[in-house]
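Subject: for your reference before the review

Hello V.,

The reviewers asked for a structural picture of the protein, and I figured it would be easier to keep everything in one thread rather than splitting it across files. Below is the amino acid sequence we used in the manuscript, unchanged from the supplementary table.
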Amino acid sequence: MVRAGRAFDEAVKSAAVAHGWRTGGGGFLYRVQGDYIYELSVTNRRERGETRGRLSVKPMGVDPVFWEVVGLSELTKKRAGFRLAGAFTLRLATVAEMARPTGDDETVTATQVVHDLQAAFGQHRADY
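And here is what came back from the structure prediction:
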């Protein structure tokens, strides 16, 4: 996966934060909604000329059960963003994926993908 430049990353972050997403260490974008944690991921695949987006989710209660089983219940004190990529966490399930051709301005495409993923987030929330 080829990462885009700083302007691309800032466009993704700005659009996501405008929709209520939070940033975590390592550039993660996440949101806790009710009993679920969601992750938003947008990457520019320059070699393919496309910008890809993914929306993933998992129940907030899954990791604490796992931590209890493996004897690491102290991890329940970690902030929500830790559940995305911290040690001893379970993976999220992908609920939406999309790709758009990267136009002349990759920051515009990045913003469009974030808006598309936000719509998928709204639909997923409506389903649950």
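For the response letter, the relevant points are probably these. The mean pLDDT is 87. Residues 106-127 form the longest helix (22 residues).

Happy to draft the paragraph if you're swamped.

O.
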